[in-house]
Amino acid sequence: MMTVSNKIFLLLLQFFTLLYLFANTFASTEEATALLKWKSTFKKQNNSLLASWKPSSDACGGRYRVICFNGRVNRLNINNSRVIGTLHDFPFSSLPFLEYFKLSMNNFYGTIPPDIGNLTNLICLDLHANQISGTIPSQIGSLVKLQILHIFDNHLNGPIPEEIGYLRSLIKLSLGENFLNGSIPASLGNLYNLSFLYLYLNQLSGPIPSELGNLKNLNYLELSNNHLSSPIPSELGNLTNLSDLGLSNNQLSGPIPSELRNLKNLNDLLSNNQLSSPIPSSIGNLRNLYTLFLDDNNLIEHNNLSGTLPTTFSIGSALRIFNLHGNKLEGKIPRSLENCQLLEVLDLGDNLLNNTFPMWLGTLPELRVLSLRSNKLQGPIRTSGSVYMFLELQILDLSCNDFSKNLPMSLFQHLKAMRTIDKKTNASRYEFH
Questions:
Q1: Are 320 and 289 in contact (CB under 8 A)?
Q2: Domains of the chain with CATH codes
Q3: pTM to 2 decimals?
Q4: Are the C-beta atoms of 191 and 216 separated by less than 8 Å?
Q5: Phi (first) and psi of residue 157, to 5 degrees
Q6: What pLDDT digit, counting tens, does each position of 227-270 carry?
Q7: How many Å apart are CA 184 and CA 157, to the nearest integer?
Q8: 114-162, pLDDT tens digit by residue?
Q9: Residue 231 neighbours by CB under 8 Å, 6+ apart
Q10: Which residue in 273, 354, 260 sits closest to 312, CA to CA?
Q11: Are residues 229 and 207 in contact, defined by beta-carbon separation less than 8 angstroms?
């Protein structure tokens, strides 16, 4: 027979089950009403993609890209849905269990409301490729569970809030392609789990914080196309997992830190700044380097990479693009580059390189672009008789040097479908199909 205590237990179980169902039904009704109210503010009410957003007591009743868990809205994903609207009337306080909020590739405009800080369970916030303007609210620092924050390709302005440094769970942070200004907050150095940091194409200024050297899990650091200045901090050499370091099109000055030799996984190194001093030979330790751009550091007088080319570049056997155009490098082209058998582009133009034209360049099997223009190369160019000379070459620029004779026609005997040959080697560019 069922005891009194067992009967009481069953009654309590039934009561709490009904209470749970009632609470979830109420919450679902409230969330459905809130979402519909937000939808009513959209400019285009006949959007066929949102046709399933109709009055109902259930927010989880098959609405387009609304996913629920235990009867509560858990994911809202209306990426690329032709929506024209704002976030001003979004029901931030009515969706406390929302974890994934994705509105990218639409036409949302206006600002990000401070109420964004109410979504404390949020794991992913993706608003990229919209027309959102204004500043990033400091309340975003309340989203301590956030792992992905994408607001790139919008019209944001103002500074990057220091409060983003509170988001210790962040793995991906992308704020690129906006109009953000001010300095990069040192607090970003607290994001120890960060793997991707994209701040490119903004108006950020000041130094690169040395605290970014704390981000030991960082794979991609993209800071290009800003107004960053001061030397490259040596602490970036601590980022041993880094595969992409984008610093191009800034006003960075001073030497290339020798500590960058520690970035053994680096595939890309981009510059175009105001760097000076010799290139450290330790750069040759970057065995996985695929592209190396240290070009155009001569925009301001006395700010140039100078000295000779290190012979250690040959260590980078994976190297495909090697661009040191527009510096004050001198001496001869080191024969050790002959070991870079995957090299496709070699641009050493607008330097002070001298000595004779190195014919061994013609034996690089993948070389397609060779520019040595505006140097001090001299003497006659002698062919070696090799049948493997410049088999893949498409662009050759040797103009503005001190060659004593015209280029020998035999140099091009193995090139196919040659478009033009101008024998005035001091003022011409050679292109081939």
A1: no
A2: 26-206 (3.80.10.10)
A3: 0.85
A4: no
A5: -135, -175
A6: 999 899 999 999 999 999 999 899 998 888 889 889 989 888 87
A7: 13
A8: 999 999 999 999 999 999 999 999 999 999 999 999 999 999 999 999 9
A9: 207, 252, 253, 254, 255, 257
A10: 260
A11: yes
